[in-house]
């Protein structure tokens, strides 16, 4: 996987990202342009019209993210709205484009685990990159993301980590914080309560779930365009989530767009419980290799029915500020990357 190290001002961080990952950004834009056309019947110029309202909000409310996206655009030789569009791809057309995943947080006496299989169309695997971001007065970030996107899945030097599950509830609000901005904001936080407070203060533009962890605790933050709900750890310190709402959200209706999501939550919870109180790194990693209910399993295979495959697995221990990333399905690993802060 391409590794990009960025530091400095928001614009400098973005420019470096755009320069180094230019090829991957080109492909990422082409991927979503084709997907929007196929699924929404809208051409890229229409996508950019949708993105423009988010761009105006970002410039007003989150100027650092706006500057970073401008830097990415300039570094990659793209227009600003091209970069905005892929950053708000979850929100465009009411969150139609939703990636699947199975996520787990688990705090034991010795470890603060966060782990996830990230599932999406196999064509996008080539556009996954790892970014290290160093900026003044904020924690240093290590994350796996799609090229050109500000925030995704990773951890920071304060021991805060993020995982992401798409949830499809119709409707979006361009005046609120887009999901991938929210992931970046969480990764710039110093604790789970800090991250929750910041995201809830802005409200979220669409529906999704961010599984937050720090060295002391974890919390599943479910949200829609109008609601928030908290998934707290169970008696054994675990939160398990996939691609459907686990809590009530008054006035909002979950489509449960991936029916196998319910089975994946049940399977992960059962398998984790069987490991005992202090699992090893190998034990936790093995949880993400489960193929029950294939092809729509935790370790997912792309078929016409499932629409996506597991593109990478990440397991983090937030106390040691370490992660292992496996590219590809974890039963068929193509590359292993060790991350450490």
TrEMBL record:
Coiled coil: none annotated. Gene3D superfamilies: 1.10.10.2120, Penicillin V Acylase, Chain A (3.60.60.10). Residues 106-331 form the Peptidase C45 hydrolase domain. NCBIfam families: C45_proenzyme. This is Peptidase C45 hydrolase domain-containing protein. It comes from Epicoccum nigrum (Soil fungus).
């Amino acid at each position: 996987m391409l590794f990009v190290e960025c530091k400095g001002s928001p614009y400098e961080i973005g420019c470096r990202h755009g320069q180094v990952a230019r090829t991957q950004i080109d492909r990422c834009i082409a991927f979503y342009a084709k997907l929007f056309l196929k699924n929404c019947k809208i051409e890229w110029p229409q996508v950019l019209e949708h993105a423009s309202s988010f761009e105006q909000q970002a410039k007003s409310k989150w100027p650092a993210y706006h500057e970073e996206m401008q830097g990415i655009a300039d570094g990659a030789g793209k227009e600003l709205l091209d970069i905005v569009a892929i950053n708000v791809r979850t929100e465009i057309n009411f969150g139609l484009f939703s990636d699947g995943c199975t996520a787990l947080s688990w705090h034991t006496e010795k470890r603060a685990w966060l782990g996830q299989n990230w599932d999406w169309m196999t064509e996008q695997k080539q556009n996954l990159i790892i970014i290290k971001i160093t900026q003044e007065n904020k924690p240093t970030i290590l994350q796996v993301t799609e090229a050109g996107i500000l925030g995704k899945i990773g951890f920071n030097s304060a021991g805060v980590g993020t995982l992401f599950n798409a949830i499809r509830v119709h409707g979006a609000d361009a005046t609120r914080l887009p999901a991938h901005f929210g992931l970046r904001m969480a990764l710039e936080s110093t604790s789970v309560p800090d991250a929750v407070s910041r995201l809830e203060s802005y409200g979220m533009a669409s529906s999704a779930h961010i599984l937050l962890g720090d060295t002391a605790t974890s919390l599943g933050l479910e949200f829609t365009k109008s609601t928030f709900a908290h998934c707290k750890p169970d008696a054994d310190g675990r939160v398990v989530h996939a691609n459907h709402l686990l809590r009530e959200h008054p006035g909002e209706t979950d489509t449960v767009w991936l029916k196998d999501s319910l089975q994946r939550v049940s399977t992960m919870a059962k398998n984790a419980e069987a490991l005992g109180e202090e699992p090893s790194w190998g034990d936790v990693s093995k949880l993400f290799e489960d193929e029950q209910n294939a092809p729509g399993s935790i370790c997912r295979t792309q078929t016409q029915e499932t629409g996506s495959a597991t593109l990478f697995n990440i397991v983090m221990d937030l106390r040691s500020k370490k992660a292992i990333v496996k590219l590809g399905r974890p039963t068929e690993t193509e590359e292993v990357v060790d991350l450490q802060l």
